[in-house]
Structures are given as structure tokens and as C-alpha cells.
Write a structure and sequence with these properties.
The protein is α+β, with helices and mostly antiparallel strands. It has two domains: about 60 residues, no CATH class; about 200 residues, Hypothetical protein af1432. The chain has 13 helices and six strands. The strands form two sheets. The chain has a four-stranded antiparallel beta sheet, with no helix packed on it. Strands 3-6 form a two-stranded antiparallel sheet. α2 packs parallel to α4, α3 packs across α11 and α8 packs antiparallel against α9. The longest helix is centred in the C-terminal third of the chain and has 22 residues. It starts with a strand and ends with a helix.
Length: about 290
């Protein structure tokens, strides 16, 4: 036996014991709810159709859990900003707001040369890795590394928009070399360097733009912890998202070893954390 019901503006095929995710039901967790908008009932091969609903028919269900979104499995209804911050947590909300802001801003550079959603996801992943490593090393203001990670490849969007022909040539270049090395060859700068310049022109604080501007700079890698940390996050993202080319990429170079006492376990944990958090944010934003 089964029935077809209408609830939350959608139709659902239901049967005893089936669990559904529905919208706009006014009930609390654990409460029974009667759904009287029944369009069809099948019993022992006999089908009854409504016009549009079957008079006197109802389906009784029980509310197992309330949720305001697919991202956060809230234990109860969230109906205020204060409660949202309390339930989500300030850190998760901070991540979500920044990621959504970047997503909206990036769309202004949408073009056929690159997959914008993929670019956004990699940027968020880099930010999550950098933030994790910052906390692991007890770096002051580790949340700022999430901002750096999101913005470190901003100039790639600008280049692709302003000079698509040159950008396509760069993307199609199969010559050996790391991405930032090939960027230097094609454009005379690497994307993180240019992004740092943009951030400086925006008058963002120096602790934000400086590590972005000097990522991959060997002199700075050996002398500046923030630069080394962000570069490490960029390299890990490259190895994860371009495995066909850079699966064996050294995440920590000899220039970085003195400032980054990080072992393989920490890098693996950073990767897992970034994957989890990027997916969580993507569910809400994309």
C-alpha cells in the first residue's frame, strides 16, 4: 500500500515506515501530523484518485527532526539571528558569510574560460587548510588565513576576464612546471602576487595582503611564517585538485621547513578538515 501526498508545495510518494524530508510543516519534533492533501491511494492493486484530493483521506506522520537548511541539522527551529549564531557557532557563521560574499563577488567575473564554481571551491579549500594550519601552529589571528585563502587567486578571475585569449594559452600549456611558475612565464607575475597587489590597493590590512603578495617567494618563505603557511595551503590544494599532474608535489619545501614544523599527519588532518568544511559551506552557498 502506498499514497501520493502534497505537502510543502511538492508531491511525495509515501508508504509505512518511509522517511521524507519535507518543508513548511508547522509542528515540533516528536509530534504527529496529519496530511490531508492525499492525491492517490494504492491498496491491493486498487488505485483511488482524488480530484485533486481524496475526500476524508489522510496520512499520519511523525516529525523526526527539524532543520532550517541542508547544511545545519538544527535540533529545533531557529527563528532569530541570536539563536542562529548560538546554534551554528560564530566560527561556522563567519566561514559561511565570507564564502557567500566571495561567491557573489566572483560571479562578476564569470566567463567561458574557467569553471567559476570550481575556482570558488578551490579558494575556499585553500582558506580552510590555511586556517587549520594557523590554529595548529597557534598563529595569532588564524581566522584571517581563511580570507587570504579565498582571495589569493582572485587575480586569475581578472586575467581570464580581461585577456581570455592569453589565459586560454596559459591553461592549454602542457609544459612541465608548477602553476605559479607557468603563470610567471605567461604573464610576468603569478596570480597570488597580483592578488596581493589588488588587496593592497583595496587598503586591506597588511597582515592580509602581505602573505598573499609574497606567496612562493623563496626569500620570504624562509623568513616569514605567514607567507610559508599560506604557501603550504596553496601547494596542498594544488596537489589535491590537480592530482593528475601534482600528486607527488612537495607540500613543504626546504625553504619552509624551519618555520613550519608540520608532519604528514597534520597535513592529512588539514586536508580532511578542509574537505569537510568546504563541502558544508558549498551545500549552503552553491
Amino acid at each position: 500500500m502506498y499514497a501520493v501526498i502534497k505537502t510543502g508545495g511538492k508531491q511525495h510518494k509515501v508508504a509505512e515506515g518511509k522517511i521524507l524530508k519535507v518543508e513548511k510543516l508547522k509542528a515540533s519534533e516528536g509530534e504527529p501530523v496529519d496530511i490531508t492533501d492525499v492525491l492517490l491511494i494504492e491498496k491491493d492493486g486498487e488505485v483511488t484518485l482524488g480530484s485533486p484530493f481524496i475526500e476524508g483521506a489522510k496520512v499520519t506522520a511523525k516529525i523526526l527532526r527539524l532543520a532550517n537548511s541542508a547544511l545545519f541539522r538544527f535540533p529545533s527551529q531557529v527563528d532569530s539571528i541570536t539563536k542562529a549564531v548560538s546554534v551554528i557557532g560564530g566560527e561556522a557563521l563567519y566561514n559561511l558569510v565570507l564564502a557567500e560574499t566571495a561567491n557573489i563577488a566572483f560571479k562578476h567575473f564569470d566567463n567561458e574560460c574557467l569553471i567559476l564554481d570550481e575556482h570558488w571551491r578551490q579558494s575556499v579549500f585553500t582558506g580552510m587548510v590555511a586556517k587549520y594550519l594557523g590554529k595548529e601552529l597557534n598563529v595569532r589571528g588564524s581566522d584571517r588565513f581563511f580570507v587570504m585563502g579565498i582571495l589569493q587567486n582572485l587575480s586569475e578571475l581578472v586575467v581570464a576576464k580581461k585577456d581570455p585569449k592569453k589565459y586560454q594559452a596559459y591553461k592549454q600549456d602542457e609544459q612541465p612546471g608548477l602553476p605559479w611558475e607557468r603563470q610567471q612565464s605567461h604573464f610576468g607575475f603569478c596570480f597570488s602576487e597580483c592578488s596581493g597587489e589588488i588587496m593592497e590597493l583595496w587598503r586591506l590590512p597588511m597582515p592580509l595582503y602581505y602573505p598573499v603578495k609574497f606567496a612562493h617567494n623563496r626569500v620570504k618563505l624562509a623568513s616569514d611564517l605567514d607567507v610559508s603557511l599560506l604557501t603550504c595551503a596553496i601547494r596542498l590544494t594544488t596537489a589535491c585538485y590537480q592530482r593528475d599532474k601534482y600528486a607527488d608535489l612537495d607540500i613543504i619545501t626546504p625553504d619552509m621547513t624551519r618555520l613550519l614544523p608540520i608532519d604528514e599527519e597534520v597535513l592529512q588532518n588539514a586536508k580532511l578538515y578542509a574537505q569537510k568544511e568546504t563541502n558544508r559551506v558549498a551545500v549552503s552557498v552553491m
